[in-house]
Amino acid sequence: MILDNFNLKGKTAIVTGCSTGLGQGICLGMAEAGAKVVGVDYIDAPETEEKIKKAGGEFLGIKANLLTIDPIQGIIEKTLETFGSLDILVNNAGIIRREDSINFSEKDWDDVMNINIKTVFFFCQAAGKQFMKQGKGGKIVNIASMLSFQGGIRVPSYTASKSGVMGLTRLLACEWAKDNINVNAIAPGYMDTNNTEQLRKDPKRSAEILGRIPADRWGLPLDVAGPAVFLASSAADYINGYTLAVDGGWLAR
Ligand code: NAD
Q1: Which of 163, 195, 199, 200 to mutate to test the pocket of ligand 1 (most atoms within 8 A of CB)?
Q2: Atom of ligand 1 nearest to the CA of 93
Q3: Model pLDDT for residues 144-172, shown as the tens digit of each residue
Q4: Tens-place pLDDT, residues 72-113
Q5: Is the CB of 23 under 6 A from ligand 1?
Q6: The ligand 1 atom nearest the CA atom of 188
Q7: CA-closest residue to ligand 1 atom 34
Q8: Looking at residue 188, what is its pLDDT?
Q9: 17 CB under 6 A from ligand 1?
Q10: Cβ of 104 below 6 Å from ligand 1
Q11: Which residues carry out catalysis?
């Protein structure tokens, strides 16, 4: 049955940035599809845990600050200790800093680049090694952005990092497809989460953005959950290095 290919029963997924927003939506989607979920965040994620457990799913929360790559190996080890294998990695944790490029600080550059691209690469590398050791392939879903495709304004490190995520996704897909490891990305459009709070609070920017979205609404965490489950499932076995826009039609304009 074709729907069985979307089932994640028996799989273990690590999702970073799990406490709120898109990461929480992806965790809930993965759990509902049958996966055991390891949620990583630098703050506690009680709401995510409660929602998953209430629905009968399995969740392990790990507190780790992904501004450095130091916690990655420990997270993989704890995952294996608890659930026995690793099958899916979703690199969702990410931050944004807004300032005119002319005044942009080194710290705002480094913090964003560290979590949004350096940690993403080394988490992919660690998961890739584990997938190869297990010998059954694996799925990686990186969270990109509209600014993987477009320039944007006042977010230079974010645009650099998210453009990098799309390129890195292609490169890793090319190196690892032969090992049955699928590396793909999701590029969310303008979503109603903490990440876009400043934009949504600015009446002029908010109206400009909404006016350009054909779907006529901001996206929600649930909107990325289905595409993430799909790319993490065997229904996506022959999809490699693609960045799927989930944007209410933003890029189609
Ligand atoms: P969010 O700010 O609500 O969520 C980010 C998550 O990452 C939170 O759970 C946060 O606690 C966690 N996090 C932040 N810093 C961390 C750190 N140092 N270590 C570990 N975890 C950390 O924003 P969101 O919109 O849900 O963002 C999720 C991803 O989607 C990000 O990569 C973001 O760039 C991307 N994205 C968002 C939008 C949007 O419109 N909201 C659009 C495109 C891409």
Answers
A1: 195
A2: 7
A3: 999 999 999 999 999 999 999 999 999 99
A4: 999 999 999 999 999 999 999 999 999 999 999 999 999 999
A5: yes
A6: 43
A7: 94
A8: 98
A9: yes
A10: no
A11: 158
Q: Could you read off the pLDDT tens digit of each residue along the chain, which spans 253 residues?
A: 999 999 999 999 999 999 999 999 999 999 999 999 999 999 999 999 999 999 999 999 999 999 999 999 999 999 999 999 999 999 999 999 999 999 999 999 999 999 999 999 999 999 999 999 999 999 999 999 999 999 999 999 999 999 999 999 999 999 999 999 999 999 999 999 998 999 999 999 999 999 999 999 999 999 999 999 999 999 999 999 999 999 999 999 9
Residue 253 lies in a domain: no
How far does residue 135's CA lie from ligand 1's centre (Å)?
Answer: 31
Q: What is the CATH number of the domain that holds 144?
A: 3.40.50.720
Strand runs labelled E in the chain: 12-16, 36-41, 59-63, 88-91, 138-143, 181-188, 243-246
Cα 17 to Cα 94, 209, 251, distances in angstroms: 7, 25, 25
Q: Looking at the domain assignment, is residue 252 inside a domain?
A: no
- SS3 of residue 209 by DSSP: helix
Residue 162 lies in a domain: yes
Using the mean position of ligand 1's atoms as its centre, give its distance from the Cα of residue 212 in Å: 23
Q: How far is the CA of 20 from the centre of ligand 1 (A)?
A: 8
Domain interval for residue 79? 2-245
Number of domains observed in the structure of the chain: 1
Cβ–Cβ < 8 Å for 249, 215: yes
Separation between Cα atoms, residue 236 and residue 87, nearest integer Å: 14
Which of the 8 DSSP states describes residue 197?
Answer: H
247 lines ligand 1 (CB under 6 A): no
Burial class of 65 by CB neighbour count within 10 A (0 to 12, 13 to 18, 19+): middle
Q: Does residue 251 sit within a domain?
A: no
What pTM was estimated for this model as a whole?
0.98
